[in-house]
Amino acid sequence: MADTRHKNEQTPAVWFENVSQSYGPQVDVLSGVDFELPAQSFTLLTGPSGAGKTTLLKLAYLALRPTRGRVNLFGVDTSALNRSGLAKLRRRIGVVFQEFRLLDHLTAYENVALPLRVVGLSERQYRDDVMELLSWVGLGDRMDARPPTLSGGEKQRVAIARAIVGKPDLLIADEPTGNVDAEMGERLLRLFLELNKRLGTTVLIATHDMDMVRNSGAEILRLSDGSLMRQPALRRATPKD
């Protein structure tokens, strides 16, 4: 997974400035949230169900604009961007959605390859990377299967492979191990850690998976009652081979 892109380590990959998000006149999901994710960092977002984790992620990958405050990505104030500028930034982000968002008429291989096809790469350029990723997530024998024939865990793994195949500058994942067993969850964690370490990808993962929290060694952001608190990383366990 060699990479030659220049990354500015001084500029935060993500910076929320006094961000609030409301879905009604008296419903603040987020309230005055301030935080930075340094470039090339690995961070876990935790908190109870309904705390606003998915909303925070949507703001970070530009699916929402904040009701108040500013979201900055890669040193760019996103509030000042037009549709074209937002699209350009989104191309630097890989997203793993809770609901997968796979295309049922495409095979697993074609779903993973789709982001590379969209930017104009030929199959000769991406075939090996797509096949390697699908094998890594345990789907080497399911490349030709379409989503309706896949289990929830298999769909999750296809979605993860699709999110990282373009080697994004920022990876945002919403409960990426929620539909897989503990062994596969550990394997996926190693994949995320490798992406972070070898390519310098900034990683932000919302999770309830305590094995991931314990084994990642990542900084923890805890969201509760619309407010965000930093917690120290737990001592990292050595992943099994």
Question: What would you say about this model in short?
Answer:
With 241 residues, the protein is an alpha/beta fold.
Count of DSSP E strands? 10
User: What is the overall number of helices?
Assistant: 7
Strands ordered across the widest β-sheet = 6-7-8-3-9-10
- Structural class estimated from helices and strands: alpha/beta
Question: Describe the biggest sheet?
Answer: 6 strands, mixed
Helical amount among residues, as a percent range? 25-40%
Distance from N terminus to C terminus (CA atoms, Å) equals 20 Å
Layout of SSEs?
Blueprint: E1 14-24, E2 27-37, E3 42-46, H1 53-60, E4 68-73, E5 76-77, H2 83-90, E6 93-96, H3 108-118, H4 123-136, H5 152-164, E7 170-174, H6 182-199, E8 202-206, H7 210-216, E9 219-224, E10 227-231
Parallel strand pairs: 3-8, 3-9, 6-7, 7-8
Antiparallel strand pairs: 1-2, 1-4, 4-5, 9-10
Helix pairs in contact: 3-4, 3-5, 6-7
How would you portray this structure in words?
This protein has helices at residues 53-60, 83-90, 108-118, 123-136, 152-164, 182-199, 210-216, and strands spanning 14-24, 27-37, 42-46, 68-73, 76-77, 93-96, 170-174, 202-206, 219-224, 227-231. The chain has 241 residues and is an alpha/beta fold. It has a six-stranded mixed sheet with strand order 6-7-8-3-9-10, sandwiched between helices. Strands 2-1-4-5 form a four-stranded antiparallel sheet, covered by helices on one side. The two termini are 20 Å apart.
